[in-house]
């Protein structure tokens, strides 16, 4: 919970400019019209919506399940939802009954060990932590309770400062100027998932408190010894915190590190362990596996490379395993490793080749054909993306892409400005068309075999839904077709949206509705309901 998130209650939306509705991926008969002043989207079968100045909950049949009696109502999670009554907040169950009474000035859910708790502020505005029954877990006597992210066993720390009540109550002073009570200042108390206070530190700015590298060490210790007595944990944590400040800080870990290509020495060791090895003959290098020559000795140098693709197509798996050493790094996340061999003959890379491990597929890394330069740009779940660049007489460079499959066959020619492969294996393409009024962006969808499914230029935007078992796409239809400038200028205006489902090499319209704004992350997988916003004026 950030400092601003812990400020007093503020108001929410109205119906003067926009309304909220829901479109269903199961057909227009299941739609809920845009008649609400605000909404949070469906969760656990219910959506909180605002009507006539009050919030309540409806089901997918638009039946009121919990009466419109709140000043705000949040999504359900773990069968509970936070609601507001005036400036106070409480927690209700799916029958609309309070499990935590509306006596708190702030409530924010915090998941700890898979259970819901609530960062809370009572009428004094001091913060603490309560459980889903309203019982205090951490007393409400702190200026802040600050969640920690990135640590498995360190969920939060508390901040304590003395409040000069001669200047007014804490609530009055905070409401007047929240920036006077920065969470960087005060006593910081660190807690584990069992709500044991592990350590305390005085902090005057963000350079004080608990350093990230030491929190990492504490988290690693708790991973192995989370069930040790609290006294032993405190001693170990104090020892870790007392380590010299010169202790090297670990390099920051990228959020996408697990998707990155492997280091060259790791790749070499892995493939050599499978029996692949380079050999030299007449001053040239080739590749063998066992006694079998896979790539003849024809290059000055060869090297192994690793690439990562997401969710390879089942039909491609035998080829990827046989020719590219394909193996899942993380099957649940769809992270899949492939391996290839690059030749190094001359500089620059013009004339260099990329080989499959089997040697059966060879592709130029870079070459010039009829004045156009062609370079392997990246890989995706269907194959290799080539970047083609040409330069006109005025010196302007035009970039286009083509797609080559794992066999080395061209699936799509170099006529597209963008080529993107979805999780379902469909290919989204973008093609520019210059007209007197400006530049149009024409979009289309192709099958994994390169067959046209949605013709290029029918829709002015096409985006794939994520997290769906069905291959669903949200597209917009415009008449007349907008230029890029017109699309940007009219981005907040009402448009015709279409939900498409692609099955094999065909597509069908699932739903059509009018909206100004659609956030695709608002699709609820359980109910198939997609929240959208429609402008009241400016249609």
Explain this structure to me?
It is globular and about 90 Å long. The strands form ten sheets. Strands 22, 23, 24, 25 and 26 form a five-stranded antiparallel beta sheet that branches. A five-stranded antiparallel beta sheet has the order 27-28-29-30-31, with no helix packed on it. A four-stranded antiparallel beta sheet has the order 2-1-41-40, with no helix packed on it. It is built from six helices and 41 strands. 11% of the residues lie in helices and 49% in strands. The protein is mainly beta.
In short:
The protein has 539 residues and is mainly beta. It contains 6 helices and 41 strands. Helix 2 (212-225) runs antiparallel to helix 3 (230-241).
Short key terms for the protein model shown above:
single chain; mainly beta; 41 strands; 49% strand; disordered N terminus; 539 residues; 5-stranded antiparallel β-sheet
Q: What is the helix tally?
A: 6
Mean pLDDT: 90
Radius of gyration: 29 Å
- % residues in beta strands: over 45%
The largest sheet is: 5 strands, antiparallel
Question: How much helix, percentage-wise, in residues?
Answer: 10-25%
Basic shape: globular
> Quick one: how many beta strands?
41
Pick out the low-confidence regions. Answer: 1-12
Distance between the termini: 38 Å
Structural class estimated from helices and strands: mainly beta
Question: What topology emerges from the helices and strands here?
Answer:
Blueprint: E1 18-24, E2 32-36, E3 38-43, E4 46-51, E5 54-58, E6 64-70, E7 72-73, E8 81-85, E9 88-92, E10 98-104, E11 106-112, E12 115-121, E13 127-131, E14 136-142, E15 144-147, E16 156-160, H1 170-176, E17 186-191, E18 197-203, H2 212-225, H3 230-241, H4 264-273, E19 276-281, E20 284-289, E21 292-299, E22 301-310, H5 317-324, E23 327-330, E24 335-344, E25 353-356, E26 362-364, E27 366-369, E28 372-380, E29 383-391, E30 397-405, E31 410-416, E32 418-421, E33 427-435, E34 438-446, E35 452-459, E36 461-464, E37 472-477, H6 484-489, E38 495-503, E39 506-515, E40 517-524, E41 529-535
Antiparallel strand pairs: 1-2, 1-41, 3-4, 4-5, 5-6, 7-8, 8-9, 9-10, 11-12, 12-13, 13-14, 15-16, 16-17, 17-18, 19-20, 20-21, 22-24, 23-24, 24-25, 25-26, 27-28, 28-29, 29-30, 30-31, 32-33, 33-34, 34-35, 36-37, 37-38, 38-39, 40-41
